[in-house]
Amino acid sequence: MPKLSYYNTGPIYAKHPEAVHGRHPKDMIVLHETATPDYPGLKDELAVENYLVSKEYGIHGMTDKEGNIIWASGFGNAVFYQAGGVNERSIGIEQVFHALKDTPTNYQLWAARTTQLRATAKLVASICNTWNIPLRFSHGDSAGITSHWNISQIYSASEGHWDCHPRHLGGYYPILHVIRMAYLYRTAGYKL
User: Fold this and answer.
1) pLDDT for 177
2) pTM score
3) Distance of alpha carbon 183 from alpha carbon 192, whole angstroms
4) Domain 7-188 fold
5) CA-wise closest residue to 80 among 32, 141, 136
């Protein structure tokens, strides 16, 4: 089985235990966008990680336009504050993206980021294979893959976030495409 290649941010959380709010089994993945400048390399990812831990938040994984993948190894079952209402049960994946609010224009921008969408699909498949999370779309009220926008529609604790508003629900983010690609990587046996 192929092992996913990634940059390990686990040591950041080992140095900042205050960002870890317990451990809990997972049955959901929540996709996010960073709304950061989108610099090449790992500059955005590491800046996001350091900002999050400074606020006692965290994120399990991250991808960028170049296809880089970050994963907090050893913290897959950690409770990170990343999606109010489902923090205990969910694994969060940030995607470095300089969003233009919740606009249809973002769809064209995401459609051009095939390398990043593939990286996200690989990470999703690896998480699903490793933790037996169902590889299906979820509106945020059941096990599967969802977006921060979906979670915000159900839980007020998610504070009205619009990131990754699914295209098939009137938004711009191609979540169903990511899930279809993840099926291929899951079949290939990708694991963390």
Assistant:
1) 98
2) 0.96
3) 16
4) Lysozyme-like (3.40.80)
5) 32
